[in-house]
Amino acid sequence: MKGKLITFEGCEGSGKSTQLKLLAEKLDNLGVDYIMTREPGGSAIAEQIRAVILDGKNTAMCDECEALLYAASRVQLLKEVIVPALESGKLVVCDRYVDSSLAYQGIARGLGEDFIASINAAALGKYSPDMTIFLDISPEDAFRRKNGADKDDRMEQQGMAFHKKVYQGYRRLAEKYPRIRSVDCSGTKYETSDKIWQLFRQNGIV
Fold it and tell me: Which of 61, 64, 115, 175 could serve as a FRET partner for 194 with CA atoms 20 to 30 Å apart?
């Protein structure tokens, strides 16, 4: 029996790490057989690619290079971690996946969804998420909540105009793909966690 792939998406500072921690506690209490991983990264090779992408010194990186590096990290994680876990029947929860590339590089960078789809054929084809949780909070509110952008993170340092485009990109994707479920994050972290858990229940994930 093939497992399910659930992905979490959102702008920088949207609270994904916090929500994934709260979700893990619930899954542990139920005894669910699952793994949690992240993008970019999640395996030794993919983590090395992550370091290159996010290095604040790499200001000369062109948009196409950025998109291709994300795709390279993703396919390595798929082959090494996600696919074996799914084939063994595990639930896989991933912090970011291909929708990040569609929102950040395809829409906000202006490379186009077709280009992103072409370099992420494996992820968008056979290994599309069963459900995607989009933590819906504006970049203004998200950065305010985390006390500003991380000066060592190249993506966080892209400027508010860029992050607004990312946010609008996510909202456009949520309208286009029914698997993307938007979760209002205006309440407490526990209220948001309860909304996510309700979606897991309603969609037969747990």
Answer: 175
